[in-house]
Amino acid sequence: MAGRDFLAIPGPTNIPDSILEAFRRPSVDFGSAEFASFVNDIWADLETMFGAYRVMAYPAVGHGAWEATLCNLLEHGDSFLLPQNGLFAQRWADMAVANGFDPKPIDVDLRRAPDPALIHDALVADTAHSLVGVFVAHTETSTGTLADLAAIREAIDASGHPGLFVVDAIASFATDPVPMAELGIDVVLASSQKGLMMPPGLSFSAISEKAIERNAKVSTPRSFFSWAERIDPEWVYQRFGGTPPVQHLFALRAAIDHIEAEGGIDEVCMRHRRLAAAARACFAAWGEGFEINAIEPTEQASAVTCIRTPGMVAGGIDVAEVLVTARDRFGVAASSAMLELTGKAFRVGHLGDLNEPMLLGALGGLECAFRAHNVSHESGLEAAVGALADG
Ligand SMILES: *Cc1c(COP(=O)(O)O)cnc(C)c1O
Fold first, then answer.
1. Alpha carbon nearest to ligand 1 atom 5, residue
2. Which of the four, 80, 129, 216, 234, has the lowest number of CB atoms within 10 Å?
3. Residue 48 belongs to what domain range?
């Protein structure tokens, strides 16, 4: 096919050329002083970007950061709150159970963010302080909702509960603000293939001093994922539990530089917010056959939108087939929906290395697929153009 295909899935995301090129560099001796200082410089930048006391890294996908965070903070049998705002929260809870931990769900309507009042009440009810803390998926990639971290912080404080505050920011880091230091978040999880615009394979737990104190007391068996050697490593090998992923680190350097060149992470988040608003203006203009899943405007994530398709369901049009047409004929890959939304919605990722014409191209490609399948809709492109031009 001529030209470039457009990736409008919520990860892996578009990769800037400077980051792709970083992977073409030959390997180096990771034992050299030069490489050690190269990595230490990256770490200083990462600690600043996260607002963290320390940053733990794993040559692993986001699931690795999930498991590492669980087994470094929890004893077997320990319970903690984990609001069930979508599939990723569910998978994290399943992983916790498989590892011998005891997540306590908080019910969440899949069209809404977790309710801070329910978190508050569950913490107040825990008079023995047996809950280790609140673990929450910030951007729930399956539903497109965004948790209100400041409100959850307030709920924890108001409850007087001493628990930890742990945030899965895998989809939100560098797309919506995650003010770790300001909100006293104890762990922020991130992964390379979303807002960091890299290939999958490197994930992080940025941690607070309080998290380190907790970690020192926990005796759960762990080895590769243990934080102990990663906290103040004597040599670069220890940061990664083995051979440093050299080219991923070249790419991470390029990713941090790319973010800095755009004006820093706050500026990057503002771009995501602008592009997301334009995308949603388009989706809303498609008309009655479509509904943005996240019904509260303040709870809509800048990384991804889940769009319900009641019109296609009523018309007997298979949303999966429309997505195949969008991808294979019009060069735009969007994602299917998950959980009970399967077959009744689809998802558009608008994160990573993305600009205005790329977004408009992706929206246009989706509309081409709608027409090819006789999906009843108004064009939303004009609305997106308006939002971008006025925003
Ligand atoms: C993508 C994602 C994950 C899982 O990341 P993997 O790299 O696929 O393991 C976890 N949580 C959220 C919110 C995500 O978006």
1. 62
2. 234
3. 17-261
